[in-house]
Amino acid sequence: MRKVLRWVGVAVLAVLALFFALFSLLQTPSGKKLAATAVAHVASSPNSVWTIEGLGGVLPFRMTARRIAVSDPGGVWLSLKDVRLDIDPAALLRGELGLRLVSAAEVYKARSAAGPAKPLVDSLHVPHLPIPVTVDRLEIDQLVLGPAMLGTRVVATVAGDLAVRPGIARARLDIHRIDGSAGKIGLQLTLSGAKPKLRLRLDAEDPTGIVDDRIFGRTDHLPLALSLDGDGPISDWRGRLTASAGSRARLDALVALGVSNKTSVGLSAHAAAATLLPSALVPLIGDDAKLSLHGAFGEQTVVDRLSFAAAFGTLAGNGEYGGPGGSVAADLRADLRDLSRFAAIAGRELHGSAIVTAKLSGSKSRPAVKAQIAASEVEASGAGARSVAAEVAVTPTGALDAQQTPFAIDAHGQLAGLALPQGLASQGGALAARIGEKIT
């Protein structure tokens, strides 16, 4: 027994000696350089190369790095400066990676990484890590997004925490702009289960009105507030979206999301946003617009239900785009109950109502459109008709991407109850008589 204990003691001392030898080696300049190379090699892939410069601190518990860069065939797209990792040794003894602090003086993202985007279904699952990972405190003094990301340079500060454990992943982030433009984003996210369930809360504010100005081409700086709150399995997720532009516009919507080998999206929204629209569109949309939409996105985009109701009337239909043959197809019906709403766009006074049905077919390079128009009590610039019926077909004779592709147009129709402008009618009664009541 004594011999066994002696061998156990020798083994423990050997392990401790090896540990302290490795620990001492890691504190030397050559050891830190070797560690940086090894970590960068493990993190890299054929299309993503990591570089770690100036690795320092007490390895592996309180590490620092002067710069970390991630590049692809197009060059460096992500860089981090003055990075610090503070690891909890007690957590390592429990078989966990506990990071008491992860911080960086600057994170600069110039653009998105090159290559195809990862499918959404691959992103919305709990990561499978060798050991549980916890970050008690995440701090980024400056998160810089280049113009290629949002159209303008954005600088913000980030704080939060995250954890990834078997069967569950959670994250909390608070982002505040610090580039002279106020604004903030708060995010709370939890993914759990083998069949992932997503709990999401997103709140965003832009009190400066810069976002509204950019989206709607305005200059009155209406403050933007947005929130998205939802819960459920990613195969059948439900959420509520609200957005407002000061007290002058509001959007309320129910959002449905289904993520599998393809992504389906459902939206039921009500908007009171006439004050944000260009003046010519205000009579068309009004302040009580409703949108209902359901579609699926994958190799082919399919919108199986579209319904839009506004001041002009209603628009309904369905369609699909893409697939192996690049086909396009759509069926649309517009019920234009009040043509006077289109006066600002037409540049003249209009009256009457119309129903327009349209069918799109063919391919994206050679689409064909057929439309039927049925209007009643139509009047424009003093002329009018009791009823108008027309059919129009437009087909390109070649590919649309070819220069000067001609179009074949076939149109015919019927007009009944013709009424000429008052001046013309008084001068040309005989003309009206010859034309008759109906024109085909």
Task: Compile the SSE list and pairings.
Blueprint: H1 2-26, H2 29-43, E1 49-58, E2 62-72, E3 75-87, H3 89-93, E4 97-109, H4 120-123, E5 133-145, H5 147-150, E6 154-165, E7 168-177, E8 184-192, E9 197-206, H6 210-216, E10 224-233, E11 237-245, E12 249-259, E13 263-272, H7 282-285, E14 289-297, E15 300-310, E16 313-322, E17 327-336, H8 343-346, E18 350-362, E19 367-380, E20 383-396, E21 407-416, H9 422-427, H10 429-435, E22 438-439
Verbal overview:
The protein is α+β, with helices and mostly antiparallel strands and 440 residues long. The protein has ten helices and 22 strands. It has a 22-stranded mixed β-sheet. A hairpin with a 4-residue loop joins β8 and β9. The longest helix has 25 residues. The N and C termini lie far apart (114 Å). The mean pLDDT is 85.
- The stretches of 5 or more residues where confidence is low (pLDDT under 50) are none
Approximate helicity band: 10-25%
User: Beta fraction of the residues?
Assistant: over 45%
Radius of gyration: 32 Å
Overall average residue pLDDT: 85
What is the makeup of the main sheet? 22 strands, mixed
Shape: elongated
What's the number of helices?
Answer: 10
Structural class: alpha+beta
- Total beta-strand segments: 22
The N- and C-terminal alpha carbons lie at a distance of: 114 Å
